[in-house]
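Course assignment 3, question 2. Fill in each field.
Student: A.L.
Task: Predict the tertiary structure for the chain below.
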Amino acid sequence: MDSVTQAALGATVAGLVAGKRCSPKVLLAGAALGTLPDLDVLIDYGDPVANTVNHRGFSHSLFVLPWVGALIAWCWWRWQRQWPLWQVMTLVIAVLVTHPLLDAMTVYGTKLFWPLEVPSVAVASLFIIDPLYTVPLLVALISALVWRHLGAKACGVGLMVSSLYLASSVYQLQQIKTRVAEQTQGTLLEGQPLIIMPTPFNTLLWRVVVSGEEQYWEGLASRLDANPSIDWVAQPLGEWPLANSDTLSALRTFSRNFIRFENRNGQQVVTDLRFGVAAYQPFQFLLAEQNTDGDWYPVSPKQLEPGPLPETALPALWQRLLGDQSIDAKLCRQSCQQTDPRWAEPISSAALPATASEKQ
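Answer field:
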């Protein structure tokens, strides 16, 4: 999640644990501790791909943070013995541990169990910035500063409201999963790898990406849709022209293999399909180039600009969230093929080709 949200979460957790000792200093300390795990962004792993895939690694591990928290708490307690050690320990560890647990609710992926070789955790029920989760925490903090004698209670209420919203996001995700399963049943998309994630700033409108052998399908599904059918836009996945590399393997693992290869005028661009909307995709990496003889060679990874975001995109996103199903995954009401040939005509779930078993 974003730094403001993590700071607000850390402060409210600290205020709740502090109880009658809740004060502006405690809230400030909690906010600082709440952003501590994200300091791993200051580590340079050598290139943009390595920096991306190693973020939310050891600094977000449930095997590391409790020990770090215990050390910080002990040092704090040794410096100022105004609190019982157990309470200081509880406060610091709780603030640190809730950071990666919240991060794990996004699609990015969090290595909660580092150094174990297990997949990162990505529930994908929250967008990385969601005001409806953050605002109750901020309101609680303002209340705790204004009515200091009720600080801990205010923090508790804020955490309860934000946690209920978090739980509702998981419920919304499960409902969309059920809808996608129903809409793809008996089609060529059935049984294919898929990923579902919320669109920016909400848990009502969801992006669905289904990956095939040679192409992928992208659709939007809102909880406010009157028609359960999903319109899909098919796009080629492309091919990697070279032998596999450690960089590409790391990117495949990080993205759960939801990546697209694209030849852009002699530059091989690899895009993580889990992020962005329409043509705006923030995780695009240049990994290879083509010489004058037509041969490909690897280059030092470079992260590219995310792409254009038309002025009409956000209004279209809002209208699609409200249930306007004439807007497709390109955030267009009509085909964008004339203005952007990368996008194909959308097709509804009912128009998808059937599987071999269904044809029989």
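Instructor remarks: The mean pLDDT is 92. The first strand starts at residue 194 and ends at 198.
Grade: pending
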